[in-house]
Amino acid sequence: MSRTATTVLGAPAERLEAREKAAGHARYAAEHTPSGCAYGWPVPAAVARGRVTALGTADVLDMPGVIAVLTHENAPRLGEPDDPTLRLLQDDRVPHRGWHIALAVADTLENARAAAAALRVDYETEEHDLRLTDRHPGLYTPEEVNGGFPAVRERGDFDGAYDSADVRVDAAYDLTALHNHPMEPHAATAHWHDGRLTVWDSSQGSGSVRDALAQLFGLDRKQITAVSEHVGGGFGSKGTARPPVVLAAMAARHTGRPVKVSLPRRQMPAVVGHRAPTLHRVRLGAGADGRMTALAHEVVTQTSRVREFVEQAAVPARVMYVSPNSRTVHRVTALDVPTPSWMRAPGETPGMYALECAMDELAVATGLDPIELRLRNEPDTEPDSGLPFSSRHLGECLRRGQDLFGWQRRDPRPGVTREGDLMIGSGVAAATYPVYIAPSSASAHAGPGGVHRIRVNATDIGTGARTVLAQIAAQALNVPLESVIVEIGSSDLPKAPLAGGSSGTASWGWAVHKACSQLAGRLADLSGELPPEGVTVTADTREETGAEPAHARHAFGAVFCEVQVDTVTGEVGVRRMLGVYAAGRILNARTARSQFIGGMTMGIGMALMEGSTMDERFGDFAECDLASYHVPVCADVRSIEAQWIEEDDPHLNPMGSKGIGEIGIVGTAAAVANAVRHATGVRLRNLPLTPDKVLESLG
Amino acid sequence: MKPFAYVRPGTAAEAVAAFAAHTGAQYLAGGTNLVDLMKLGVATPDVLIDVSRLPLDTVEGVPGGGLLIGAAVRNSDLAAHPAVRTRYFALSQALLSGASDQLRNAATTGGNLLQRTRCTYFQDISKPCNKRAPGTGCPAREGVHRDLAVFGHSEHCVATHPSDMAVALAAFDASVHLHSTDGDRSLPVTDFHRLPGDRPQVDTEIRVGELITNVELPPVPPGARSAYRKARDRASYAFALVSVAAVLAVEDGRIRHAALAFGGLAHRPWRARRAEELLAGAPATPATFAQAAEAELAAAEPLRDNAFKVQLARNLAVDVLSGLAGDDTGEQS
Q: Which residues of A touch B124 (CB under 8 A)?
């Protein structure tokens, strides 16, 4: 039975490729093996800072199966990339431990690995500097922060307003580095043939991979095909081209054979990005009624010596609450550390942890319920820009959650609810994530037999993008979902942006919607039979998406959480969690729920167990595998629920959707931390809340 | 990858003979740790002698009431064995608190005892480690060591033994039966693992080529109950920060038998003899338990970042012992 087209958008359609994935037929980047394929194994630098002075390449070349060893001495010269982390094997510098200094290439994976392990490398080491503090002499104010936001914004007179406020909160919060660790490691297979380069790469956007390779190898984009058909997660770490695809392409050019490079898990923490540690100071000043008069969020963070990346953690404070006198500042210092990058909701995730904990502290200081405090500080327009919101239903999310969660039954006093050795508490935090839309193109084809073929270089990183695009097409064409075939994940398809910034569905979907709407019109105008070649329409949304929006556009949400704190062990367990979101129109109830609860689960990880420790002697992250970098397991997630408010927002895109891939993690760690404080009466400001810290706090 | 030969003997005698006949041999059982270490380049055997299918895969009663566990018995099978579940409950709990279902299905009794520390320096061949590369130094002492030892460490090594199972075995006074070309012998499990001293590369008292054939549990003291509790960073699939196994028999409100062992504190399961001395014959009250635990832990020498383990161990011991005593008196624990 086919679903009718009028109900297809919003329906809980199953993933189109679900069966293919479950059966193991879906092929990922490392599962493409062209004839004659060789294998590359990268060699990571074993010092934190210095220079490679000698390489024992000759000895390794005599080893079984070894085809080549690429180093800065012999690797193909690359064009200057936009992203300096891709400037691989071009000189002898070691900017941080784990930086790739060579690639061993052999006939088998085992031989490549043995060769990489055997390569003798001599270094000249230099003093390294790895410790971030808020007094680091290298701290500076960057021109802008990630996302192109200004590093500093001042409105009104923060100092004056803060000093004269009835109630003041001044709190510092520290967050460790976090790692994306998608299930599928970064991997690529590269094949040069007939003057062209084909790569299968695990990426969130094969278009940006193709562009990076064109720049590096001095090729026309048309000479490159980048394929990312199935991707086992990215969480931002695959948003840009990463070393494996560059190394594979270099090695394939050098050896004249296809080459595959798949990163071992332990190499990932150093070379595929991470969320940088952030040190926050939040100051809130309010009247006795809880209405805020002053808000400052000051962030100190680090980047590498390779590239400046500044986590925009103070940016959400420009969006969230009434704040007539405000200061939001980012400062950064470059250290001899791996290069940070995008990780799920960059900026919002660490920023909203600090801001939403500070709001909880303000609720305590004013004696107000934390929901009521937030409702009293709802702004009429976006505080920083003064723009009206296209839609903002944070209040509704808070109120809906209040009812669903049973917040009214909560005893507001901290540390009073006990069950034996367990202290029980609950917490709430708000969430926000901006609406991003990028121009995209797509084609729609109606062929004989009632088949509709959609082509767009979207990427499905496990989110259900392929499926939702089919739903958008079916709706626009008014045809059954089963009649729609979606081709995505290749740079040969109509150009489209990467899966990032929670913008994919809006950006690709708009182009698909436009192409399909035009195709529907063409088909309606058709006199007589469909021509044998069918009808094809290609559409582009550059014009529609190019205009400066007249509204501030953000999704909002509220996260509620109940925790138990074991006074014997200091272990914190999340008993139940509820997220209520206002994110425009939800286009697929099934996959949207997965996105929300997936983000919330990642937030539990951030709150309770995830953290990367910089080893100050060696310059690497101590937790470099999934045994030591703890992410939540099923036993950590007992009851988790996501709900949403249907929002009708005409200022977004034809589907009326906001992004949903990232907002689930935003605010979640604060909700957990606030619940822990409610349970114990003690505020812990440094995540993760592992048993050592919690036990110590209980005295 | 370093090539290795693979041998699958049919009997324990064949296994030890095969070991003697090859240089660079290592026994392979479930492989849940050894294969990882081979992938990491930490273990580099020339020959693997697969003992996972030797006829050592049964759990049998011993006259007098003990239990003889074959070295190849899988962790999941041992945890589910009716005699273990009823009489050696702490052992079942310990096994089930370790690793994941999949790993427990593969891991064996003998292999579990011989697993190696998860100290991150030990597992990273690009760094010094006296246990892996004697004489290179111990970066953990001043480095990342929150998870490492507070008892019995040395300037050369601060590693912990990661097993849950071994902690319960220590509390039950189990013994390890060993077979070699020189014959058979057995060691109390509490003497099986060593402290690191100046030879941290040696984890246990097992001799080169010796094979664990069985682990024997003596009868449980009359009226005794047992429990295991583990504290960790996430609810499953994480090594113990600290764990405790306790066996307790109480009669007329007084402690007739008490055995207490800690995991996560030392290079071996830490049998709390000092605490046990104080417990013997004392009233079974939380105050006694606290006093005993504190007396034991007073000798702890925590490192910069793991002092929390002392408090955690104390709390766990008091909680588990109180729970066991409460069960006996019908009180709520």
A: 266, 624
> Which residues on B lie below 8 Å from A98 (Cβ)?
none
Nearest by Cα to A506 from A451, A584, A415, A602 = A584
Phi, psi dihedrals of residue B98, rounded to the nearest 5°: -95, 145
Answer whether B236 sits within 8 Å of A635, measured CB to CB. yes
What percent helix, strand, coil does chain A show, rounded to 5? 30, 25, 45
Domain that holds residue A441: 5-27+437-546
Number of structural domains chain B divides into: 2
Q: What CATH number does the domain containing B249 carry?
A: 3.30.390.50
The amino acid sitting at B253 is G
Q: Is the pLDDT of residue B101 over 50?
A: yes
A528 pLDDT band (50/70/90 cuts)? confident
Confidence category of residue A527, pLDDT binned at 50, 70, 90:
confident
Q: For the residues A384-394, what does the mean pLDDT come to?
A: 98
**A509: its two tokens:** 């979907």
pLDDT value, residue A699: 86
What's the CA gap between B42 and A266, in Å, rounded? 14
Predicted confidence (pLDDT) at residue B328 exceeds the cutoff of 80: no
CA angle B24, A58, A111 (to 5 degrees): 45
User: Final residue of a domain: which of A271, A289, A317?
Assistant: A271
The residue among A407 and B1 whose pLDDT is bigger is A407
Final residue of a structural domain among A509, A529, A546: A546
Q: Does a cis peptide bond (omega within 30 degrees of 0) precede residue A688?
A: yes
- State the Cα–Cα distance between residues A244 and A256, nearest whole angstrom: 17
Question: Which run of H or of E encompasses A355?
Answer: helix A348-366
Is the minimum CB–CB distance between A622 and chain B shorter than 8 Å? yes
Average pLDDT over residues A294-303: 98
- The pTM of this model reads 0.97
The CA distance from A390 to A530, in Å, is 41
User: Residue B15 belongs to a domain with what CATH number?
Assistant: 3.30.43
Type and span of the H or E element at A131? none
Q: Which residue of B has its CA nearest to A46?
A: B126
> Is residue A125 within 8 angstroms of chain B, CB to CB?
no
A20 and A96, same domain (yes or no): no
How confident is the model over A415-431, as a mean pLDDT?
Answer: 98
Name the residue facing B319 among A568, A613, A695 (closest C-beta). A568
Domain-located, residue B101:
no
Q: Per-residue pLDDT averaged across A625-650, rounded?
A: 97
Q: Give me B321's structure tokens.
A: 């012992």
> Which residues in chain B are closer than 8 Å to A615, comparing Cβ atoms?
143-144
Domain hosting residue B46, numbered range: 5-50
Active-site positions of A read 662
Please tell me which of the candidates A615, A695, A696 has its beta carbon nearest to residue B143. Answer: A615
